[in-house]
Amino acid sequence: MSTNAPLPPTGWHTIGPFFPRTFFKEGDNDLTRLSPDAPPTARGERIILHGRVLEEGGGPCVNAVLEAWQADAGGRFRHPLDPRHADADPCFLGWGRAWTDEAGRYEFQTVMPGGYADAAGMRAPHVNLSVLGSGIMRRLVTTVFFPEFALVNGQDPILLALPEDGLRRRLVAAEEGAADSIRRFRFDLVLHGSPEEETPFFVD
Amino acid sequence: MLTDPPDRFAPYDEAGQPQVPIAGYPNTVRRHPCSLPLFRRPVTRTELTGPLDLTPKLQPGDSNLAVSPEGRPAIGQLIHISGRVLDEDGRPVRNAVVEIWQANAAGRYFNPLDQRDAPLDPNFIGNGRALTDANGDYAFFTIRPGAYPVPNSGRWWRPPHVHFSILGPGSLSRLVTQMYFPGDPLNVHDRLLNSLPDPAARELLVAREVSTEEVDGEWLAYRHRLVLRGRHATPPLP
User: Fold this and answer.
1) Which of A17, A56, B59, B223 lies 20 to 30 A from A62 at CA?
2) A14 vs B192: CB contact, 8 Å cut-off?
3) How far is CA A187 from CA A32, A130, A159, B155, in A?
4) What's the total number of domains in chain B?
């Protein structure tokens, strides 16, 4: 098929309340493995990124689906649009899916992503998160940063797209210590709240 | 591996996308930002890229929903849904993950959260996953889903529909949508479908019926095209 005029992208809809639980397999939220029975990647520092998804009134957003996408520990993506993709970690997929429990909790096991130089500027280490759920007619997208990279966070073009420091701080996960020597980072997503608490989301 | 993934992602045309809130669907308020705008961001490498081979994680192979894993047929009108996944330039999207899920013929989901009175069909789970082929084509056998009333919504019924989730070649290519059936009288009343302001965009969510004369089998056939966001920089921009 050839066409000069672009085709309009298909309209979005919500996943609704009945996204199949049978779609989720053990290990879907583990970015460190290509598949549930694959060994974990040897590159980078294993970390846990977890938190809660909250709706109006601070109640749990139950049964939401979160999808994560991030670079490997060296800041590379296994994708031809990354000029360094040939050196990307072959044992790291960079993608995972989690769903929230009755308390709105989610958890990803992953590695600390690397930063990299991008045409748009220096990208600080980050994880892209998408939120799908009943009533969310188009996915909500945001980006999670890490507190130990304050300097490069201050130059990141996505963080700088936010108008004030208070909002930028809200996209930085909180370090919560370690369990079994794996550091844990907490990032709550407030979908609907006061101007002081709502999570900044981006135009998709 | 994909050699020419889309690298241009224009903002969505709002007239072709759902607008919220939707009356009678309180989660479109409770789970939507109200204090902050959605912030514009530059498109960088991390948004352009995405996982190209999800099959070890999201295993395909469930493309026949009409038969249970034990080989017993589900109750309902047997249908075949097929179509092509394209990008905005009309190029086929190969190896895209296509996930579908739907209610059974009585309008009930095989999901513990669906507690309505309509009967469950033990032979119909109602979800499947497939990959698009070299032409960008996908196909599923299933049964025609039933309509159902939305609880506490003031007699709003959902028309028969099939949920689609597509993972394409970049994180900005992600699409979650629903497919409707042509000619169903509930379509024009559906509040989700009507949340797209542009009637032409709504029409694109309705499948096309294939003439029974073209179908060589005991099923009704529908074609449904899906267009993922993304264009190609060929010819390059000035």
Assistant:
1) B59
2) yes
3) 19, 13, 16, 39
4) 1
* Contact between A167 and B202 using a beta-carbon 8 Å cutoff: no
What residue of A is the nearest CA neighbor of B39? A202
B118 touches chain A (CB under 8 A): no
Q: Which residues of A touch B44 (CB under 8 A)?
A: 118-120, 123, 157-158
Rounded distance between C-alpha atoms, residue B22 and residue A135, angstroms: 9
| Of A69, A126, A198, Cβ closest to residue B36 | A198
Each residue of B75-92: b (16+ CB within 10 Å) or e? ebebbbbbbbbbbbbbbb
Contact between A186 and A106 under an 8 Å Cβ cutoff? The reply is no
Is the whole model's pTM more than 0.90, yes or no?
Answer: yes
Q: Residue B58 falls within a domain, yes or no?
A: yes
Task: Write the pLDDT tens digit of every residue in A92-132.
Answer: 999 999 999 999 999 999 999 999 999 999 999 999 999 99
Cα separation, A44 vs A71, in Å, equals: 11
Q: Do the Cβ atoms of B12 and B198 come closer than 8 Å?
A: no
Residue B137 sits at the chain A interface (C-beta within 8 Å) = no
Give chain A's end-to-end CA distance (angstroms, integer): 27
The CA distance from A151 to the nearest CA of chain B, in Å, is: 19
CA distance A174 to chain B (A): 22
Domains of chain A plus CATH, in order, are 21-190 (2.60.130.10)
B16 backbone φψ class: left, alpha, beta (φ>0; ψ -120 to 50): alpha
Chain B residue with CA closest to A163: the answer is B39
Of A129, A186, A133, A191, which is closest to residue A158 (Cα–Cα)? A129
Across the interface, do A11 and B177 touch by the CB < 8 Å criterion? yes
| Structural domain for B220, as ranges | 54-227
Give domain status of residue B142, yes or no.
yes
Which CATH number belongs to the domain containing residue B193 in this structure? 2.60.130.10
Length of chain B in residues, anyone?
Answer: 238
User: Does any CB of chain A come closer than 8 Å to the CB of residue B233?
Assistant: no
